[in-house]
């Protein structure tokens, strides 16, 4: 590299280093207010645990957690408190999305409840069998909080105008229902089911999810203003809160006792201990913990939720997920010129490293193959040569494994900066060619992500540095989640993607991250090699030996018998069409087979040209968790 190029790199490195140094937290504790959506109870246990276990203090935060019920039993709403600056954080979900469309500058920082706790409740003797029955009933409505938002969305999904159902009423919904003042109301299963159980009252429940309204439940919200002024503090608060939630879900009895003893409750409830114990069981179901990572946000699911709200005429603007979902990686105060230059320089560096490592790997493989060919002539010499080659290969793998962070960090930054350039986050780039360059950089970066991640995963496995963190997993739910994640890819090719798993499948003792990597790779591959209008299915069952068996099948292009063995080798890609039309590194199936082998399992590939391919993954019986 010439001196001019070195000076350019130094010129870009210095401002980046300065930005990183300025982002380090100070020793002074930041005062933070968290607004709940109801009175103190286990529904908010993670935030109490983060406070009591010192997680907030360790993050440099002084947190005040506020009940939503005032001493006079009036209620405050978290979305309004956060939007108007009286609280820094609040508990919200889809109601925050609706409020943002209405002009409130709200942002989702983390999703805690992966499922909604909202339902429409009526006495069992009430004639409530579908949303249409609500038109003729006396229904208590609230002021557009989360239950009412989901109620409206459910009604509109069924072609019913919400204005024709019920009206705004003061009072407690369950008490009014029991006393006969109303026929139905929208509320939370976390409280309604407990009250009905204590009073011996049988309820009929309409769940919006039954009618296609699959919304998130409680999440952590904040404001645009706070994210722009102190994104680092927001990230600290989110991380400490998630740590608190993990503690609360793993030590529910301890946290329940502290809630009952330490927190004053304004809204009275019989058997406060039993009530919180009931909520702890329901909350764990809503979080899907530990199957789903706490705080996980699926942007595509939020996009679908917004479309459902738009179809229901509850929102009317356009959704920018980059603005609505908090992303701590995004550097909002970077200048546009710096972004472009850092992106270009970083891209060149990553291309160099990727090409270097790729060629090094191919060269080493060729060296090993060449030395092995002399086995029949000089056995002793070949053994020495193989030992040296294996040592070199192991050194290469260990080096690549260690380099994983150094490679992924700049690559992630490049992808983020390219996305910002594409979206014109800081205004137009100027010449239209810059938009094309940004698109090319982003597309090339995605290909590099796939290549580098594949090489690094392979290297960690070969270096013996891939460690499993095993636990009992709901394999049927993981397959369902993988099918949902790949549905958009299938729909783009008009392919029917189906989960054919039957009921009663036991749990699997395994590591969830590599298991999801295996499932996503197999399903994505099946879609890639299936023509438009085809079928792809995924399923899991127990065989006669007690082994859990996963199958992914398609009716796509297929592979010839002579090419099956080659398809399972690294850096090989079999394509029945000429010229080759499918992109990829050729590492997917090889990495899958290695990850399966780490679990003591096996993978079998059966295929016929123009008929399709079936991949069978079999885990040993001892990994089947028998209840």
Number of helices: 23
Rg, Å, rounded = 28 Å
> In which order are the strands of the major sheet placed?
2-1-3-10-4
Number of strands: 18
Structural class: alpha/beta
Summarize the structure.
The chain is an alpha/beta fold. Strands 2-1-3-10-4 form a five-stranded mixed sheet, with helices on both faces. Strands 7-6-8-5-9 form a five-stranded mixed sheet. Strands 12-14-15-17-16 form a five-stranded mixed sheet. A hairpin with a 5-residue loop joins strand 14 (535-542) and strand 15 (548-554).
Structure description:
A hairpin with a 3-residue loop joins strand 16 and strand 17 (612-618). The chain is built from 23 helices and 18 strands. Helix 15 (336-372) runs parallel beside helix 18 (432-462) and helix 19 packs across helix 21. It is an alpha/beta fold and 627 residues long. The chain is globular, with a radius of gyration of 28 Å. The chain has a five-stranded mixed β-sheet, sandwiched between helices. Strands 7-6-8-5-9 form a five-stranded mixed β-sheet.
Task: Summarize the helices and strands and which ones pair or pack.
Blueprint: H1 3-22, E1 30-35, H2 45-52, H3 55-58, E2 61-66, H4 78-83, E3 89-92, H5 94-101, E4 106-111, E5 118-123, E6 139-141, H6 146-157, E7 167-168, H7 173-178, E8 184-188, H8 189-199, E9 203-206, E10 219-223, H9 224-229, H10 231-250, H11 252-262, H12 272-287, H13 299-311, H14 321-324, H15 336-372, H16 379-402, H17 404-423, H18 432-462, E11 471-473, H19 475-485, H20 487-492, E12 496-499, E13 507-510, H21 512-528, E14 535-542, E15 548-554, H22 561-567, H23 588-598, E16 602-608, E17 612-618, E18 624-625
Parallel strand pairs: 1-2, 1-3, 6-7, 6-8, 12-14
Antiparallel strand pairs: 3-10, 4-10, 5-8, 5-9, 11-13, 13-18, 14-15, 15-17, 16-17
Helix pairs in contact: 2-10, 8-12, 11-12, 15-16, 15-17, 15-18, 16-18, 17-18, 18-23, 19-21, 21-23
């Amino acid at each position: 590299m010439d001196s001019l190029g070195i000076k350019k790199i130094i010129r870009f490195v210095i401002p980046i280093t300065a930005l990183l140094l300025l982002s380090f937290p100070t020793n002074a504790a930041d005062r933070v207010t968290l607004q709940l959506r109801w009175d103190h109870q286990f529904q908010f246990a993670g935030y109490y645990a983060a406070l009591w276990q010192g997680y907030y203090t360790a993050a440099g935060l002084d947190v005040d957690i506020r009940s939503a019920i005032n001493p006079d039993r009036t209620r405050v709403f978290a979305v309004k408190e956060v939007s108007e600056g009286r609280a820094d954080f609040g508990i919200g979900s889809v109601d925050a999305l609706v409020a943002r469309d209405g002009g409130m500058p709200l942002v989702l920082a983390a999703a805690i409840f992966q499922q909604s706790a909202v339902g429409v409740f009526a006495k069992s003797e009430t004639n409530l069998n579908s949303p249409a029955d609500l038109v003729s009933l006396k229904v208590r409505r609230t002021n557009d909080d989360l239950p009412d938002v989901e109620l409206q969305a459910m009604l509109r999904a069924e072609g019913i105008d919400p204005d024709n159902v019920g009206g705004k009423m003061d009072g407690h919904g369950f008490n009014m229902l029991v006393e006969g003042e109303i026929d139905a109301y929208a509320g939370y299963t976390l409280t309604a089911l407990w009250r009905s159980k204590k009073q011996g009252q049988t309820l009929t429940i309409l769940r919006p999810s039954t009618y296609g309204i699959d919304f998130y439940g409680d999440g952590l919200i904040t404001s645009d203003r706070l994210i722009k002024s102190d994104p680092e503090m927001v990230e600290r608060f989110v991380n400490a809160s998630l740590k608190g939630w993990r503690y609360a879900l793993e030590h529910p009895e301890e946290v329940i006792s502290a809630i009952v003893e330490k927190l004053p409750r304004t809204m009275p409830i019989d058997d406060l201990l039993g009530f919180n114990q009931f909520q702890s069981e329901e909350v764990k179901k809503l979080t899907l913990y530990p199957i789903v990572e706490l705080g996980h946000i699926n942007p595509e699911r939020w996009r679908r939720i917004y479309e459902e709200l738009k179809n229901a005429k509850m929102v009317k603007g356009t959704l920018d997920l980059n603005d609505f979902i908090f992303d701590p990686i995004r550097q909002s105060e970077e200048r546009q010129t710096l972004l472009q230059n850092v992106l270009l320089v970083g891209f060149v560096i990553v291309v160099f490293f990727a090409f270097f490592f790729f060629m090094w790997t191919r060269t080493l493989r060729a060296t090993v193959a060449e030395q092995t060919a002399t086995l029949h002539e000089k056995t002793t010499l070949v053994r020495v040569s193989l030992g040296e080659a294996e040592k070199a290969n192991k050194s290469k793998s260990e080096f690549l494994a260690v380099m994983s962070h150094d490679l992924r960090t700049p690559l992630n930054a490049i992808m983020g900066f390219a996305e910002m350039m594409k979206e014109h986050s800081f205004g137009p780039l100027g010449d239209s060619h810059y938009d094309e360059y940004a698109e090319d950089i982003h597309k090339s970066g995605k290909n590099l992500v796939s290549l580098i991640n594949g090489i690094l995963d392979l290297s960690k496995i070969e270096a013996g540095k891939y460690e499993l963190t095993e636990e009992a997993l709901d394999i049927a739910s993981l397959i369902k989640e993988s099918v949902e994640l790949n549905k958009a890819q299938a729909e783009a090719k008009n392919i029917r993607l189906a989960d054919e798993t039957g009921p009663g499948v036991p749990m699997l003792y395994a590591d969830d991250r590599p298991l999801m990597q295996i499932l996503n790779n197999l399903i994505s591959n099946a879609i890639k090699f299936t023509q438009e209008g085809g079928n792809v299915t995924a399923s899991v069952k127990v065989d006669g030996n007690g082994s859990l068996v996963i199958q992914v099948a398609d009716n796509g292009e297929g592979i010839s018998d002579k090419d099956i063995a080659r398809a399972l080798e690294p850096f090989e890609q079999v394509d029945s069409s000429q010229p080759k039309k499918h992109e990829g590194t050729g590492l997917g199936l090889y990495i899958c087979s290695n990850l399966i082998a780490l679990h003591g399992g096996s993978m079998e590939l059966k295929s016929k040209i123009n008929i399709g391919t079936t991949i069978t993954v079999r885990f040993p019986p001892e990994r089947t968790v028998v209840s």
